C-alpha cells in the first residue's frame, strides 16, 4: 500500500485564533508560475494575490515564495486569508466540560463549528481558541451551523485521532431533539433508511434510489397544539440526515430554511432558528476509559413559546431586535 506523505507543519503561526490557509499545488498543470495557478484557483482579485506576494505573505516550507517562482507540482504553501467583515452571532457558547484533553460546549444556533466559507472568526472553534488560550484546539466532530447543542473539541494534538475516530467508527451515541408538526396518523416510533446524496455547491441534500447509506430512529415524546416534540437517534451521520428524514415523513423541522423547500432568510435574521438540538453525546473516553454523557442545557423555543411560532413571522428590522432575542436562546431561558 502506498503511504501518504505527511503534511509538513505550517511555517506561519495562528493569527487571532485563525489558522493560515494551507494549499497543495496539483500534481500537474499548465501554469508557468505559482502566481498563475493561484490567480486561477483562488476566488479573490489578482491584485490581492499580488499584494500577498509583495509582502512575503505566501510562504512555502523554505520561506516566502517569489511572484515569479516556477510552478512546483505537489508542494505546499500557506498564507493568511483576507478576511471580510462578519456579522456577529449574538449568542454565547457555554462550556459544559473541560479537562486536559477535551472541551465540550453547548453551541447556539447560527454559530458555525469551524471556519468555512464566509464564517471564519464567528465560529465556535475560533471563539474557544481565543477565550481559553488553546491554539491547538481542534474539533472532534462537526455540528451544522443552524443546529444548536453539544459539540466536542480536542485540546491536545496527540489525542485528536483517538477522539475523532469515535465518531468515524460510530462509537458515540447521539440523541437529538426537534420540534415539528404533529401528524396523528404517523406511526411512531419508526426507523427511516434511505440513500442520501449531497452534491458540492448545492445547499440541499436529496434522497435517491439505491442501497441505504443513512438510518435514523424517530420517536414522538409528546405533542400539544398541533406541534410534536421528537427524539431523533441518528445511527449514521450523513449531511442533513435528520432534517431530510423528518421532511420525508411529512413533519419538517420548524425553522428549516432548506427542507422541504429552500428559502432565503436574511443573514442577520436570528429570529426563527432551526428547531433542532443536539441533546446528548455519550461514549467511553478512548484516553481515560471514563464513561461520559454530556447533555445540552438549551431548550427549543417553539416548544416553550408556542405563541411566537403560531403567529405570522416578521423578520427583525435591525440588529438591535436580533440582539434582544438572543437572551431567549441562552441556556435556562
Automatic annotation (TrEMBL):
Q: Which SUPFAM superfamilies match?
A: Pseudouridine synthase
Q: From its record, what is one biological process in GO terms?
A: enzyme-directed rRNA pseudouridine synthesis
Q: Which reaction does it catalyse?
A: a uridine in RNA = a pseudouridine in RNA
Tell me the GO molecular function terms.
catalytic activity, acting on RNA; pseudouridine synthase activity; RNA binding
One Pfam family assigned to this protein is PseudoU_synth_2
Q: Which residues form the signal peptide?
A: none
Residues covered by the Pseudouridine synthase RsuA/RluA-like domain: 102-247
Looking up Gene3D superfamilies in the UniProt record yields: Pseudouridine synthase
Query: What is this protein called in UniProt?
Result: RNA pseudouridylate synthase
Q: Which species is listed as the source?
A: Streptomyces palmae
